[in-house]
Amino acid sequence: MADKEFPLLSGDCRLVERCLEGDDDAWEAVVNAYGRRLYNLSYRYVNRREEAEDLTQEIMVRVYRNLGSYRPEAGSFENWLLRVGRNLIIDHYRRNRRFAGAGGTEELEAMNLSDTRSPSPQQAAERAEDARFVRAGLESLSPELREAVILRDLEGMEYREIAGLLGVPEGTVKSRINRGRIELARLLQKRRAPEEDRV
Amino acid sequence: MDCTQAEERLSEYLESSLPEGEEVLLEEHLHGCAACAALLGEMRSVVAACRRYPVLEPDPALLERVLIATSGRPRRRSPGEWVRALCRPLLVPRLAVGSGLAALCLALALNLWMPRLADSWSSVSALGVLGVLDRGVQSVYSQSLRVNDRAGEWVAQFRFFRDNTFHRIRFFRERLDTPAQSSREPARREPAGEPAGENGEGRRVRPLA
Questions:
Q1: Is B182 on the interface with A (CB under 8 A)?
Q2: Which of A15, A52, A161, B121 counts the highest number of beta carbons within 10 A?
Q3: Within its chain, how far is the Cα of A43 from the centroid?
Q4: ipTM at complex level
Q5: Are B39 and A117 in contact, with CB atoms under 8 Å apart?
Q6: Residues A189/A155, Cβ–Cβ less than 8 Å
Q7: A57 contacts in chain B (CB < 8 Å)
Q8: What is the DSSP letter of A167?
């Protein structure tokens, strides 16, 4: 899912080389290509626009300073950059261990629903409602379950990648994701129950 | 398979990664357990909702900040972004309402003015325009002549005043320079043929012996 929404940058190795040579245009291309993705990743963790912006800036500064440590033989630049970003976000998230409250409706209203390819306003409204539910549901999960669900279902990462990133066995990752989904499903059941009672 | 065991396998079942034997057992359980079947349905909805989670557009100022904090060079904007940046104030509700009201007032003012303008424009002709221009030129010319005459008058008055004042000053100075006696006594007339001496006394003619 994520790969479809965020177009990949071709010729990343050459781009990194140009950045290391001091080419500001190359660095601007990196920021334009990955800034939105890192911002969304940050936002899904912290649920606050300002905090997500600060995190994104912090990640990009760290990436810029550590560009020299990127090794093409170890994997793509995109994976390396996202790993740096995820590590920093998870550190930040674990340090704070808190989520934003139920506020932030302005962020939800500001969500770019124009590229959701919804053919009708009704479907667009349903999607906005789904987004509110996911956001509220994730806030109700424990930090371990929440980060596992975000990385799997919102970021589309593989179990193996998540295990490597979080430093836990793959079986633990699967278990956390399953428990997180079950809790969200029960939350959805509770939410639908009063509606059915009213009907 | 009981409900607890079934729940532990729901995610893998959704992702079709369960071993075949476990998948059959789970499906048998789901056929007989409405609660687990409902939970699976909700879980499917949750995963779909998560995957449709919208993408936020970061503020362009954020990317600008990032570039300044890293390379130090501000972001290069495309022409479209320049236009959007210029039009952004109009998208602010308060400013948009203000602009709308200003446009409305302007439209009302024009509505009051336009009929008169239309009336006057309908009576315009080439001869009329020439006449107006001729009258305008004549008016400007006569006004300039009047101003010139007025300026000449002012200059003449100034010169008269200046000359008169200098004349009076010279007159008084001459009066002041003249001795007081001569001014009080009438001048003594010398007899004819006896020119006055150097000290003012008349030279006497000695009698012939």
A1: no
A2: A52
A3: 7
A4: 0.73
A5: no
A6: no
A7: 62, 65-66, 69
A8: T
